[in-house]
Amino acid sequence: MAEMRVVEARDGGVLTLTLDYPARRNALAMPLREELHRILEAAQGDADVRSIVLTGAGGVFCSGGDISGMNVTDSETGRERMRRTHRIIRLMVAGRVPIVAAVEGWCVGAGLSIACACDTIVAAEDAKFMAGFGKVGLMADLGLPFTLPARIGAGRARQFFLYGTQADAKEAERIGLVDHVVPKGAALAKATELAKFLAAQASLPIALTKQILAEGLDRALEEERGFQTACFLSADHAEGKAAFLEKRDPQFGRR
User: Fold this and answer.
1) Strand, helix or coil for residue 203
2) Termini Cα distance of the chain
3) Among 52, 183, 176, which Cα is nearest to 118's?
């Protein structure tokens, strides 16, 4: 199996997590998700962790889910896959620790989902944002139907979901998808600066603010769990996955 890991680094109260899966441009393979969940859960119980920076190695934030590992064959498997992943989103969106995303390069699919689960998004000028789930016969997941409209409004979010809209950093800032745009290579430094500010603030008001802003998340995730499972088992997903792996355009709707 190709090497994949989440690299941890501590600087005072700031914990920096780096997705490192070079073979798939930091795609969120299930082992990587499990490792991310383990670290985030431990951070919730560590009073010395007062903020988190999330970034990706190699000039890419995250290229999405690992299509090669999407092997859902029945409803129970699909629902369990979503349950395990939703643990991460709950910790990020509703957990006590504020999280700043440092985005360089591509931020696509599940990558966009975890970026939008953060409290602040810092993007380098070369960053590119796209949902892209439809290309493989899936709906947006990992909480994105909840978090993206909260950032940019339902109308704009609908365009990302239905048309595969792509936004560069400047456009993403204009519509409210990202909070800060910095020169290429500078996203981590800016995100760390913001995380240090958050680490110096009173932690309880931050935790309670995150909790109240997360109202409705559980219901959204439970609906998503069932809906995405249906998509996993669809003929369109089978075609989308095959087309992706064969590097061709999918032919949806053909039986």
Assistant:
1) helix
2) 34
3) 52
The token duo for 170 is 């400047």
Residue 226, pLDDT score: 96
Task: Give the HSE-up count for residue 63: Cα atoms under 13 Å, Cβ half-sphere.
Answer: 16
Q: Which residues pair with 8 in a beta bridge?
A: 17
pLDDT for 68 equals 78
Residues 109, 133: contact at Cβ < 8 Å?
A: yes
- Phi, psi for residue 139 in degrees, rounded to 5: -95, 160
Rounded to two decimals, what is the model's pTM? 0.95
Fold of the 5-183 domain: 2-enoyl-CoA Hydratase; Chain A, domain 1 (3.90.226)
Contact 187, 55 (CB under 8 A): yes
> Over the stretch 80-95, which tens digit does the pLDDT of each residue have?
999 999 999 999 999 9
Q: What is the mean pLDDT of the chain?
A: 95
